[in-house]
Amino acid sequence: MSNAPTPAQADAEAILDVMQAFYDALEMMDAPAMADVWAGRPADVCVHPGWPMTHGWQSIRHSWRTIFEHTGYLQVSLSDISLEIGGRIARVCCTERRYSVYAPGTITSTVAATNLFVRTEEGWRLTLHHGSPVSGQRIAAADIN
Amino acid sequence: MSNAPTPAQADAEAILDVMQAFYDALEMMDAPAMADVWAGRPADVCVHPGWPMTHGWQSIRHSWRTIFEHTGYLQVSLSDISLEIGGRIARVCCTERRYSVYAPGTITSTVAATNLFVRTEEGWRLTLHHGSPVSGQRIAAADIN
């Protein structure tokens, strides 16, 4: 009897490792680490909370650089993580609790996030991040200004 | 030589048909039609603009009924549609322009949407809808109140 993980378990672990690397890159505001996480394709999609949809890795990379330049500190903790693998694409949904420091002050916010991963020759990579503000916290954040 | 669609074309057409049925059900505020569109599984996920994540079809169905009960009229037009099929899961991203009539007045809003479809024994079905408010229009909508 072997204790080796099944292919599905190995995929799930690899996907969650890439997702952890994504949130690490986000918290560290590390643009090269962020680039390593993404598939880097024209088909990649990103929606930052409150932003319109950004299509294609070149535009997405620019958006992360803009965010990193305007953020002093960012901490993210995750909950409600759910994963489904459907062949070459896998999705992980989660709730992000973000503590951010910007020029006007600090913001504690909740973000509903969908992350999609695509199986590439180099392994699983992020191909879609969709984060959306959850209303209660959006109102609280507005009180700061 | 055959003009029959390739399997990928047939899948793409079937997925976009289900997506059209989803937006038709939304505009018609038709709960049974909405139920036909979704996979109806515990793994289904829905994020309405500004809402936290709703997990599982039973809770998602309840959320649609609540929305339909509080909406007088809803019209949605789509743009920026992009599709990727990755085996058993497919994603369609798009921008929704919504014109809604609620008790306080009318709201014109833009929503960034990710829709995921899963291949079931009955064909492709919606398994994730993630809609998020785009900020400019959110501010405009707040002016109504």
Note the topology:
Two copies of one chain form a homodimer.
Chain A: H1 7-28, H2 31-37, E1 45-47, E2 54-55, H3 57-69, E3 73-85, E4 89-102, E5 105-120, E6 123-133, H4 135-142
Helix pairs in contact in A: 1-2
Description:
The structure is a homodimer of 145-residue chains. The first copy, chain A, is an alpha+beta fold and 145 residues long. Chain A is 34% helix and 41% strand. The first copy, chain A, contains 4 helices and 6 strands; from the N terminus they run ααββαββββα. The first copy, chain A, has a 6-stranded mixed sheet, with helices on both faces. In chain A, a hairpin with a 2-residue loop joins β5 (105-120) and β6. The first copy, chain A, is globular, with a radius of gyration of 16 Å. The relative contact order of chain A is 0.18. Mean pLDDT of chain A is 89; it is low at 137-145. Chain A binds chain B through residues 43, 45, 47, 49-53, 55, 80, 82, 84, 86-91, 93, 95, 110, 112, 114, 116, 118-119, 127-128, 130-135, 138, and chain B through 43, 45, 47, 49-53, 55, 80, 82, 84, 86-91, 93, 95, 110, 112, 114, 116, 118-119, 127-128, 130-135, 138.
